[in-house]
Amino acid sequence: MRPLLVVLVTALALLVPAGPASAGTAPDYPEFPYAPTTYSEPFRGQFHFSSQSGWMNDPNGLVFANGLYHFFYQHNPHGLEWDTMHWGHATSPDLVHWTQKPIALEPGVHPGTLFSGGGVVDKANTSGLKTGALDPIVVFSNTNGVSVFYSNDNGRSFQAYDQGRKQIEIPDESRDPNVVWDADRRQWVMVVWSNRGGNGVDIYTSPNLLKWTFASRYAADWLFECPDLFVLPVDGKPQWVLTSATSEYVVGTFDGTTFRTDRLQPKKMNHGTTFPGGTFYAAETFDNTPDGRVVQMAWQGGNRGSTWTGNASFPVALGLVASPDGPKITRTPVAELDSLRADTRTWRNTTVTATNNPFAGVLADTYEITARFDLRGATAREFGFALHSRSDGTADRTVTYDRAAKTLYGKPFQPVNDEVSVRILVDRGQLEIFGGDGLFSLADNVNFDSAAVSQGIRLFANGGTVRLKDAKFTRLGTSWGTAQSTLESNLAGPWHATAGSWTDVAGGKQAQTTGDSFYLSASTGGDATYQGDLRLDTAQAAGLTFRATPEGAGYTANIDASGVVKLWRPGRDIATYSTPIAQGRTYHLRVQTTGPRIQVWLNHGTSPIIDATDTAYSSGRFGANVYRGAATVQNLNTGAAFATFPSGPWTAVGGTWTTTPDTLRANASADAFYLSDRVVTDLVYEGDLSIVNGTAAGLTFRATPEGAGYTANIDAGGVVKLWRPGRDIATYATSIVPGRTYHLKVQATGARLQVWLDRGTSPIIDATDTTYAEGRLGLNVYAATAAVRRLTVG
């Protein structure tokens, strides 16, 4: 969406930022954290997504990838009004329970104007961008041309393809690229709004998401901003649907080059206020849904709270039905809404009058109502529901059907077989109305008063009576709090703290406590491998807790600032291992339990530093523990461990080194090393390296405990380099793409140093240097975030 939106909003009201209010650099990407929230503020939707804080507008790049729905959106994390655009990010396993994630695309880190765009999942790897086991998420943004960004870690980080250069150049004003797969012709299709002599979309095609060919243009005065193109069947025949930001649409055909329709005047799929900042705008559909549904979400700009502006409409499944006026879209809330249902009440065959209210005594804050009214014999002038009503007869909003005007909520609505059917979703700041099997839909923002005295529901009929054929009221619970925002973990939620406070920070979950505090997942187990990253900020100790009760009684393996790693349970220190523990440094612990046997590993050493037995607890919850002060935990996972060569515990020299869970990740603003205690002379050393963003990452060998030695690295500047302090020994020019995994192998034989790239048969570097004859094996990262896997020594 264009920056002109700023004129449609009120005066600037800034948030107090929780972190630096400026674009980040590669090592500290992404901007985070947000101010903490329980999502219980007045007018905050309980089952409509809103950003944890800051401004949100258009949905961007909605995809289902690698087991999660990803909702990206236009976002200003530093204020309550439109400003410099970022791409916000949230994930959900079911389209209902959303979890705020760190920012996906950030100005200053990702090039271009990061305005509205689309996204797809490249399951067949047509782009060749895939580097690991996960399907790439590929998204498109920029203005007056299109740039490509991609993620190989399920949206945790994004890289700019071709350094962000526009893969499509458009000389006219343009924005909002949207991409869909054309299965019949096995090609990708993109529509981009452009002002090429008026409103319309430019259509491009591509075999690989990277190289695009202009195919045609579809011009239409009504087609302004945020187009979406998708396929829906009607009577078993697939039809192509083209929509605009204002919810207008036409149905037609696409022959691989040109979109055509015989309906020049569009229909409207939603009766809300469909302008920027209104109650329904810039809707977009999900790519790659697992069941083939076409699921849509839109921006509702009318919702405002103390720390956020805007929300998303509740996701709906789209359908297409035939009518004398051509195919029409239906919108139906997704069935996953059932996961929030609580108590239900039903009514059947009841006469409604001005004084007979079947819903009398029902009090609710967030809920759903479905009802069918029989118009045969009806005498009422109007009937409907007064929502959040009070004893004085007032209500926050009334949903009325006018029989004479044939309008629902003031919008045209034709009865079907003398019947009016409605479905109403009531949230704290949102009202959505559906009717006629989804042919009617309307999204609104309403500031509902959640006070107990304002939670009544009044079903009324004015000027006569109407028969209620049937109705159902269902209370809807909150969708928030089931997953973690910044804590990376495969453990199930909800999580709970036993004491202290646990808040989201850029590095994971941070505890502040005066004594022992536990943060416990809903996952339980007996025999398991459990691992995580721990950092003492000011705390005395922090650790991994396992086989625990809901109160935290169980086993804990911790790092302690007194200089030990300790395995303990309430009432007993089972075993300790002496080693320096520094505040501000991240340590990795791994625990393996087999019956009464408990083993603990430190920093990827191949031998356990603790090997003990205890029979007090055989099973229980997984979580974390912090004692007396502040500490941060991250990457709490059961299962696979980072694979490396035999060594004792590794030591960090600068930077932050974490494990997620079988990948070692590094983050540093300058040179940083991670060194094993393995000292070698002649060697063959290899591993897989990826620059997530930033400058360089490499294999270090023959190094001192401070990291002075040889390093062979990949550098995003376009070289593989062999260097030592004070000298670049040799370089090899080649394209190094951020996000792509490269295999490096080094062989040192006396003074001869050789480097191979991507399992080539010949070394790309073959040089000599006599400075270092022996030393430690390790890793290096420079001004970057990097990922490392599968280190081996021959």
Task: Outline the structure in words.
With 794 residues, the protein is mainly beta. It is 0% helix and 53% strand. It contains no helices and 57 strands. Strands 35, 36, 37, 38, 39, 40, 41, 42, 43, 44, 45 and 46 form a twelve-stranded antiparallel β-sheet that branches. Strand 31 and strand 32 form a beta hairpin. The radius of gyration is 29 Å and the shape is globular. It starts with 53 loop residues before the first strand and ends with a strand. The model is unreliable at 2-22 (pLDDT under 50).
Number of helices: 0
Number of strands: 57
Q: What is the alpha-carbon Rg in Å?
A: 29 Å
Overall 3D form? globular
Unreliable segments of 5+ consecutive residues:
2-22
Largest sheet: 12 strands, antiparallel
Helix vs. strand class: mainly beta
- Roughly what fraction of the amino acids lie in strands? over 45%
Helix content: under 10%
Average pLDDT reading: 94
Distance between the termini: 54 Å
Layout of SSEs?
Blueprint lengths: L53 E12 L2 E9 L9 E7 L6 E7 L12 E4 L15 E5 L3 E7 L7 E2 L7 E2 L4 E9 L4 E8 L5 E7 L6 E7 L8 E7 L2 E7 L4 E7 L4 E2 L6 E2 L12 E5 L9 E10 L3 E5 L3 E6 L6 E6 L7 E12 L14 E8 L7 E8 L5 E8 L4 E2 L2 E2 L6 E8 L3 E6 L4 E6 L10 E7 L3 E11 L19 E2 L3 E5 L2 E18 L2 E9 L4 E8 L6 E6 L3 E6 L2 E7 L7 E9 L2 E6 L7 E4 L6 E19 L12 E3 L2 E4 L4 E17 L2 E21 L6 E6 L3 E6 L2 E7 L7 E9 L2 E6 L7 E4 L6 E19 L1
Parallel strand pairs: 1-21
Antiparallel strand pairs: 1-2, 2-3, 3-4, 5-6, 6-7, 7-8, 7-9, 10-11, 11-12, 12-13, 14-15, 15-16, 16-17, 16-18, 19-20, 20-21, 20-22, 22-23, 24-34, 25-30, 25-34, 26-27, 26-33, 27-28, 28-29, 30-31, 31-32, 35-37, 36-37, 37-46, 38-43, 38-46, 39-40, 39-46, 40-41, 41-42, 43-44, 44-45, 47-49, 48-49, ...
